UniProtKB/TrEMBL annotation, chain A:
It holds the Pfam family ABC_tran. GO terms for molecular function: ATP binding; ATP hydrolysis activity. Keywords: ATP-binding, Nucleotide-binding. It comes from the Bacteria. This is Mannose ABC transporter ATP-binding protein /fructose ABC transporter ATP-binding protein /ribose ABC transporter ATP-binding protein. Residues 7-251 form the ABC transporter domain. It comes from Aliiruegeria lutimaris.
UniProtKB/TrEMBL annotation, chain B:
It comes from Aliiruegeria lutimaris. Its main location: membrane. GO terms for cellular component: plasma membrane. The chain crosses the membrane at residues 49-67, 79-99, 105-126, 133-153, 207-226, 257-275, 311-331, 337-356. Keywords: Cell inner membrane, Cell membrane, Membrane, Transmembrane, Transmembrane helix, Transport. It is a multi-pass membrane protein. It is found in: Cell membrane. It holds the Pfam family BPD_transp_2. This is Autoinducer 2 import system permease protein LsrD. GO terms for molecular function: transmembrane transporter activity. The lineage of its organism: Bacteria, Pseudomonadati, Pseudomonadota, Alphaproteobacteria, Rhodobacterales. The complex is composed of two ATP-binding proteins (LsrA), two transmembrane proteins (LsrC and LsrD) and a solute-binding protein (LsrB).
């Protein structure tokens, strides 16, 4: 591929004391694609995307956005750059409402003087928008948008996190196991949403342990092993068992696809 | 989509999903068959000041029935406001900090030190009282800022930080003032601005001090800010789950520093009101302010774990203490009964908090 990656990591290293989470990890996300990231538990997938989204700062290596080096000191800086992330832990404030959580850090203010001088939040607008986004995702079992997030089921919370990222990611959307707690119907909606977002031209990073999902939506699959990228394969060229075998070290990675 | 290699896998995988096209598409509606206690829990969860408000009204009613018009009069009611003024203001500051899952043990020390600075700058250096007040307010904000930096950047536990700064500010207060009191009469003659919040106006039998009005204004302002601005939502989010707040794009460190600084500023303001309340400037005044503020906040239903509660609840908490103190004094009981009842109320409030949290977690 000769295109320039939208989001790229080069030689990323991240250590937590004696634990090495990333050792010289590379990563490329190309325009308009769905890139799946698979790997064993503890392989370093979440740490990798956290270094790309400003939640962690790599010890070495660099992150490039549209080919230019960037240094996100906080997740907020990455969000300003258009990168929206669903973290594995979901990053929700349990005691606050769904609408509060959807707009956390990017709240809407009332138009006119009430917003300008009194800094008053436009709660009706935020609630309406949240309701629309949840409906798009098929989260119909949520009755009250003013409900505290802690009163929701794990899957409903995950749905809200996905809706939030899909609504605000303008350049890149990163989903760390977005369907792990979702039901059949809700998972299907998230997969449809991923395809919709790709159709809008926004590239997506999807971390998942669910091979059928990965093989259904991914354009390329980044196989992560022991803190670095082992190889990148295409779903059409390898089977699920190949991917699992490579990911677990039971099979050597194909030499030629690594360059893809 | 992928091509031939995985098509089989997909189709077999998807067959069980085919029925989804018939799935319901409307927002779920349920018959309301939840138990009463469950509904109560949910309601209390969304209205955190309800319990203290109810206790406050009940207390006023009970004392009113026992004591009659002596207690149930505009004069007695506004007297309570005057008596809880300092507690109400410091409890507002304390609420902000506790909402972020912190605690500020230095509120009393900041208040006294700021009032001493206002007094000493006026009398020792001959600076106009208005400017001295501004300097005192600035000093309070600075003390809060120091707490904030230690909590947000040095990442020390708020309890430890403010346990330390409490001693430091209080000692600095005694060293700086040389234990010297500025007498009420002198202040009245030379710098009445310092006593501004002790002045009052009457409406019928009701006596309102400016201090009591200021307390209500502060509470209303903060209540608005906490529930209607983005900053207010961030304060709750930081107290609720700090890491989640950071990941969702809240500037956690800035918010913490702002909260502690604002708390310091409000405490300095309480220091100004304190001069109006007691008339003089004394480095030994307001000794119980800390514990009284925390008591008001806890009785007011603000969770010490952060992220839950409201400023109106904290005001109600302060008023409950005021109603009990005055009511029991009028009945003529031993003042220890007040402490005994307040102690019981604290335990009751925390029990209710636990119950509300358990019901929805
Ligand atoms: N904040 C942290 N402090 C210390 N060690 C950490 C931290 N975060 C991750 N690690 C370590 O880094 C390694 C990689 O963790 P990571 O969360 O990236 O795994 P993962 O590939 O996302 O796994 P999973 O599939 O289970 O989500 C693990 O050994 C983990 O213990
Ligand atoms: Mg992970």
């Amino acid at each position: 591929m000769t295109q320039q990656p939208v989001l790229q990591g080069r030689g990323l290293v991240k250590k937590f004391g004696k634990v090495t989470a990333l050792q010289g990890c590379d990563f490329e996300l190309y325009p308009g694609e769905v890139l799946a990231v698979i790997g064993d538990n503890g392989a370093g997938k979440s740490v990798m995307i956290k270094t790309l989204s400003g939640a962690l700062q790599p010890d070495h290596g660099e992150v490039l956005l549209d080919g230019k080096p960037v240094h996100f000191n906080t997740p907020l800086e990455a969000q300003y750059a258009g990168i929206a992330t669903v973290y594995q832990t979901l990053a929700m404030s349990p005691a606050l409402s769904i609408a509060d959580n959807m707009f956390m850090g990017r709240e809407l203010r009332k138009p006119g003087w009430r917003g300008k001088y009194l800094r008053q939040l436009d709660k009706p607008a935020m609630e309406k928008f949240s309701r629309e986004k949840l409906t798009e995702l098929g989260l119909m079992t949520i009755q009250n948008i003013k409900q505290a997030v802690e009163t929701l089921s794990g899957g409903q919370r995950q749905g809200i996190a996905v809706a939030r990222a899909a609504a605000f990611g303008s350049k890149v959307i990163i989903l760390d196991e977005p369907t792990a707690a979702l039901g059949v119907k809700e998972s299907r909606r998230v997969l449809e949403l991923i395809k919709d977002v790709r159709a809008r031209g926004i590239p997506i990073v999807l971390i998942s342990h669910n091979m059928p999902h990965v093989f259904e939506v991914a354009d390329r699959i980044h196989i992560h092993r022991l803190g670095r990228r082992l190889c990148v394969v295409k779903p059409g060229e390898h089977t699920m068992s190949d991917a699992v075998a490579m990911m677990t070290g039971a099979m050597e990675p194909p030499g030629e696809t690594q360059a893809a | 989509m992928s091509d031939t290699g995985t098509a089989n896998q997909n189709s077999s995988n998807q067959s069980y999903e085919d029925v989804l096209k018939d799935a319901a598409t409307t927002v779920a509606e349920f018959e309301e068959d939840e138990s009463f206690s469950r509904k109560l829990q949910n309601w209390l969860h969304s209205t955190p000041s309800a319990v203290p408000m109810f206790v406050l009204l009940a207390a006023i009613l009970v004392f009113g029935l026992i004591l009659g018009s002596k207690f149930f009069s505009p004069f007695a009611m506004t007297l309570i406001l005057q008596q809880v003024m300092i507690v109400g203001i410091t409890a507002s500051a304390q609420t902000l900090v506790i909402l972020t899952a912190g605690i500020d043990l230095s509120v009393g020390a900041i208040m006294v030190f700021s009032s001493v600075i206002m007094g000493q700058f006026t009398f020792r250096y001959g600076i106009p009282a208005e400017i001295s007040v501004a300097i005192g307010l600035g000093a309070g904000a600075l003390m809060g800022f120091i707490n904030g930096v230690l909590v947000a950047y040095v990442k020390l536990p708020p309890f430890i930080v403010t346990l330390g700064t409490w001693q430091i500010f209080l000692a600095a207060n005694f060293l700086y003032s040389a234990n010297e009191t500025i007498r009420a009469q002198e202040i009245e003659e030379q710098a009445p601005t310092l006593q501004l919040f002790g002045e009052s106006f009457r409406i019928g039998g009701a006596v309102f001090t400016y201090g009591a009005v200021a307390m209500i204004v502060i509470v209303v302002l903060l209540a608005y800010v906490l529930s209607n601005t983005a900053w207010g939502r961030h304060v709750y989010a930081v107290g609720d789950d700090q890491e989640a707040a950071e990941l969702s794009g809240v500037k956690v460190k800035n918010t913490l520093i702002q909260v502690y600084t604002l708390s310091g500023l409000i405490c300095a303001f309480a220091g100004w009101a304190l001069i109006g309340r007691i008339g003089s400037v004394s480095p030994t005044s307001g000794q119980n302010a800390n514990i009284e503020a925390i008591t008001a906040v806890v009785i007011g239903g603000v969770s010490l774990f952060g992220g839950r509660g409201s400023i109106l609840g904290a005001l109600a908490g302060g008023l409950i203490v005021g109603v009990f103190s005055l009511g029991l004094r009028m009945i003529g009981t031993d003042p220890q009964w007040t402490y005994l009842l307040i102690g019981a109320l604290i335990i009751f409030a925390v029990t209710v908090d636990q119950w509300i949290r358990k019901g929805t977690a």
